[in-house]
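Feature request disguised as a bug report, sorry. It would help if multi-protein outputs had a clear separator. Right now it looks like this:
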Amino acid sequence: MGNKYNKAIICLLAVRTDALFVKCKSRLSVLTLARDVLQLLCDIWSAKNLSNATKICVYETLVLSVLIYNSETWCLTATQAQRLKVFEMACLRKIEGVTRRDRIRNEEIYRRVGMNQDILSWIQQRRLRYFGHISRLQDNRYPKIALHGRFHGQRCRGRPKKRWIDTIRRDINKISPAYSKQP
């Protein structure tokens, strides 16, 4: 009975979230949209009759999917990565029912809710999976041409912009430094 009840709640919330997505589609920030979804679900986070496992399932299904939509193409700066981690911890603290005043460490919150990956690990995993998909494409496909193509002309003055392939190289270097020796 409880499992059917939980599935019904998730389906209902998915419909409400889709309506919010259509309403807020013109907003620039994905983080703002995810925050709106989080606030839309505030009754779920404070519900005493739902287990933390169900709340985490709702979080991963509705909030996290909105937050990391199309994240495999992002080149995150340090500030953006920090904002994502702060938002994730705010979500998990809300699910757990604790505030920052309770002075509970982030690692403890992760342990309590049973999550073993943070948001940046999710994004890195998606980015590397997408890179593998592009690498296996035929050479005449546009994504592969764009990945390995070169632009002609001069760059603007100043520090070069962060490129997606540089982010991939950094991700691969984090996983296994032996692979990063290739050009």
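(second protein starts here, but nothing in the output says so)
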Amino acid sequence: MMTLMKGFVLLLTCFAIVLFGVILDAQAETCSTSSEMDAATKAALQRTDAGRYAPREVSGLSPARLARHMTHSGKGWQVNDAVRSRVSTMRHNLVDPLPEGMPVVQIGERDWELGKNYPAEIALGACVRETLRALLPILRGKMSAGRKTQAAQRLVEIAKNNWTAKRERLAKDMLAVAGAKPLDPRWLMMTIADALPKDAVVVEEGLTSTFSLQSFLRFRDAQSFYGLASGGIGFAMAGAVGISVALPNRPVVAIVGDGSAMYSIQALWTAANLKRPITYVICDNRSYRILKERLVSMRGTEKFVGMDLRDPEIDFVALSQSMGVPARRISDAQDVVPALRASIASGVPNLLDISVADGFGG
């Protein structure tokens, strides 16, 4: 039985390693970091005098030729809107994210992505960073003084409600719940994000507990964050091992809900066996809160059957230690940062079982 168990664990880990190795290989093809892309996108906001042109797909087009196409018809088409969108798991909105009739210029590094979601008037297969770096000076030279003033005014307005401004406002709101017991998940996400070293890789599968994580977590590079891309759960415990193997010189922090963790809890043994520098943060709300919230929103009832993990409660500390991973239980706010930093600094797998509010008064 033990041999069978070890074989299953290793098979699961190998699957995770292959899966995330493929993901990392695909991401390695890109030549744009998040910080560089943000700077380029901000600069692109200022380009407003490009002309409208006929629908076409362009691959390998030089920046100078692209700029000529963008001023071809002289009808004053403007590249003055930047859309930053994020697909939210299990959510659907009937409102289209792009205004009707907005022309799209798409620059991408994967040919199969070009024009996939929206038809592009120009679809350019090229390195995004280098293309914008070469294209922006050309477009700047085509701007009138009036357009430059308008662009500067828009950037001032955008700055009032960009990610950084929203983060600062939300951080102030967290002061009101900083001492709550059990811990408020939003405060916990802010605290974790602030305590992480710059080279940390975050693996997220906390569902309701990590809903606010991306409002606090800075994406420093293309390999710093991995999360769910669909409604399925259960990948993060084993996935963190695969990611750590693929990125051997970076600490991994896996933030996982207690329910999600139980889908592949045996991955702790593999993390210990491979001695990977992974800190597992279990957001322990003693329930399947995501199911409760779906039941309330879709059925209008709070009659929860089989959705609590309280009788008996799962002892994640004992469970982790039984598989060779040191662990501790945390319920006080002042213990979170020291424990997290010590776990990361240890260079070996650790587990922090942190008690958070369940969203239904417990």
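Even a blank line would do. Unrelated, but nice: Residues 34-159 form one domain.
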